[in-house]
Amino acid sequence: MKPSAERGSLTLELAIAAPVLIAVMLFIAGASAVQRARADLDDAAWEAARSASLARSPTDAEAAATAAVERRLAGSQHSCDDRVVDTDVSQFKPGGTVAIEISCSLPLSEAFGLFPGRVHLHSRAAEPLEPFRAVE
Hints:
single chain; Pantoate--beta-alanine Ligase, Chain: A,domain 2; three-stranded antiparallel sheet; 3 helices
């Protein structure tokens, strides 16, 4: 038989360890949700840059980039509020580049449950334009 001094020690250890383990699991789940949102934003920036690089004019490139971002993030499970899509067409010429910058803020309540505040996400992608293509 166990001595009576050790009775209930397992219950006490579980009462102390359980909240810590639950907090660690919630943190890992929240961090992975933020990382998924960041990966979605990176994918959207890449797709937008690719779509813009296929356009024939800077105006069409900006429209194609915005449409690609909306299309890519429409199926995302995260609501990236106040999304800003900036299309850099200053080098839009044969052999030049087109760059896309996307920034938004993700509510932490979506990632971490009860946490207040937001995390700001930013992504940038650039694509070269073909050197032997006609642009308007």
